């Protein structure tokens, strides 16, 4: 287990289009394990490889229902819409309202290269969209319609 350093704010690595994963080797497994540990320690529900400085199309998600790994994910269907608060481990303390589809279907590969499809609704749909955006160099602040004031602890 290793915690990797999170890339934040205006780090240019967060604006790059990530490369397709072609090698499903031990190194990829280590990256995914490290990403999961880094995300969990930071109390996030999703993390994309560029957030730890790796320009590859790999994502981990855990919204509290178990670990999901998406390699080379592609959203193939989306429907409905939802408005809600969103944050990002690369923008600590910043939350804003972002509109996302209510339902998505994503096609991806697992860490061994096997293709699968996954459907997500509500928070899972939001997380899938947010993380897939990272792989194209997009961050959620581009889509915020309204920033949410944080309650200060007194
Ligand atoms: Co993010």
Layout of helices and strands:
Blueprint: H1 26-41, E1 46-48, E2 58-61, E3 68-79, E4 82-86, E5 96-100, E6 103-109, E7 115-121, H2 122-135, E8 146-147
Antiparallel strand pairs: 1-2, 2-3, 3-6, 4-5, 5-8, 6-7
Bound molecules: cobalt (II) ion (CO).
Number of folding domains?
1
**Class inferred from helices and paired strands:** alpha+beta
Alpha-carbon distance between the two ends = 36 Å
Helical element count?
2
The sequence of SSEs as H and E is HEEEEEEEHE
What fold name stands as the CATH topology? Answer: Peptide Deformylase
- The strand order across the widest sheet is 1-2-3-6-7
Mean pLDDT across all residues, rounded? 96
Low-confidence stretches: none
Going by CATH, the architecture would be: Alpha-Beta Complex
CATH superfamily: Peptide deformylase
Number of DSSP-assigned strands:
8
Rg computed from alpha carbons, rounded to a whole number of angstroms: 15 Å
Largest sheet: 5 strands, antiparallel
What share of the residues does DSSP label as strand, in percent?
Answer: 25-35%
Question: Which word captures the global form?
Answer: globular
**Helix percentage:** 10-25%
Which ligands occur here? Answer: cobalt (II) ion
The top-level CATH class is Alpha Beta
Name its key features.
about 150 residues; Peptide Deformylase; 5-stranded antiparallel β-sheet; 3-stranded antiparallel β-sheet; binds cobalt (II) ion
């Amino acid at each position: 287990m290793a915690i990797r350093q999170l890339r934040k704010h205006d780090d240019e690595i967060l604006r790059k289009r990530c490369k397709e994963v072609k090698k499903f080797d031990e190194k990829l497994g280590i990256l995914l394990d490290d990403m999961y540990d880094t995300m969990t320690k930071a109390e996030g529900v999703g993390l994309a490889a560029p957030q730890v400085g790796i320009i590859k199309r790999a994502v981990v998600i855990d919204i509290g229902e178990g670990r999901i790994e998406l390699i080379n994910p592609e959203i193939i269907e989306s429907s409905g819409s939802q408005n809600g608060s969103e944050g990002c481990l690369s923008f600590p303390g910043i939350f804003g309202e972002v509109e996302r589809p209510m339902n998505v279907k994503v096609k991806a590969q697992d860490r061994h290269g096997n293709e699968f499809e996954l459907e997500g609704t509500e928070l899972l749909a939001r997380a899938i969209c947010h993380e897939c955006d990272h792989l194209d160099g997009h961050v959620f602040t581009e889509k915020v319609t309204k920033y949410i004031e944080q309650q200060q602890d007194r």
